[in-house]
Amino acid sequence: MAKAVLLGVFDGVHLGHKAALDELVLSGADRKCVYTFNTESVTTKGKRKLLSTAAEKSELLLANGADEVISADFSLVKDMSAEEFFNEVLVGSLNADVIICGENFRFGRGASASSSDMKAMCQKAQLGFKEVKTLLIDGEAVSTTRIRRLVEEGSLKKANELLGRPYSISGEVVHGNHIGTSMGIKTLNMMPDDIKALPKSGVYSTRCIIDNKLYKSVTDIGTKPTVAGDQSMIIETHVFDFDDDVYGKTVRVEFLEYFRSEQKFDTFDELKQTILNDITRRKESDL
Fold first, then answer.
1. Domain count, the chain
2. Which of 32-46, 51-65, 228-242 shows the highest mean pLDDT?
């Protein structure tokens, strides 16, 4: 039973990653495995926000052709030489027959070995090998770093184009100060996950997935400057045609388009009217 192993970090599982997953599927192997890393354990470039949690990444990899996802602790392999990683992990532990990686893939202590080195090792061990070329869009590589920058700038349309799907954030619905409810505009509130990249403060056209159902929505990310008191970041989503009690449930918000910056208003009437304008704009959208 032939086994193909695709190597990479895959944070975000963007279009470039999907091209690699296509090669995994095309390998024709009986067992298609993705060997990746627990992204939170990869600290070679310092602390950075992630495009996907471990659970989100695994779900996306499996949905795009992988039969199995192995999420390794990077600290357990980072000090291995390239030869040790190849012989002990890929051959000894995984029993790989075919190895697939991107052209910029690095491995071994201090990222000392390249895709070319992997090819040479595979040839010596008589294993199959496939190198996946970097995907370019608008003349620039599709990369997690590029998409993270777009998300944090609020450029969600472009970020979503490179991801191949809307950028999303999932979280548990928590109680807020119920200001929206008092204005007749109920919101679902989530606290941001510390590890996820967050779009810049402002109001966004969104979709909300609740119990596997999709709803149009408008989402505000920020500190609610019009409301005195706690100034911590919160994600507030007004879901259209929905009024169920979902406190304690996990919902997912998909970010489609940046509408406007967060503003401080002199009165709640001004705030309410601006939110109503946001809602009208969203309802008229085809997204």
1. 2
2. 51-65
Q: Answer whether residue 245 shows pLDDT above 70.
A: yes
End-of-domain residue from the set 141, 158, 175: 141
152 contacts 200 by C-beta, under 8 angstroms: yes
- Angle, to 10 degrees, between the axis of helix 144-153 and the axis of helix 156-163? 150
DSSP string, 247-271: TT-EEEEEEEEEEE-----SSHHHH
155 part of a folded domain: no
Q: What is the pLDDT of residues 129-161, one digit of tens each?
A: 999 999 999 999 999 999 999 999 999 999 999
C-alpha of 120 from chain center: 33
Residue type at 129 in one-letter notation: F
With contact defined as beta carbons under 8 Å apart, do 247 and 175 qualify? yes
19, two tokens: 């091209």
CB within 8 Å of 55: residues ≥ 6 apart: none
CA atoms of 222 and 188, how far apart (whole Å):
14
| Residue with the two structure tokens 């040790």 | 84
Distance set, CA 264 to CA 62, 156, 223 (Å):
44, 23, 10
Contacts of 109 (CB under 8 A, 6+ apart): 78, 79, 80, 81, 82
Looking at residue 110, what DSSP letter applies? G
Calculate mean pLDDT across residues 217-246: 83
pTM score, whole prediction: 0.91
Domain membership of residue 134 as a residue range: 3-141
In a domain, 175, yes or no: yes
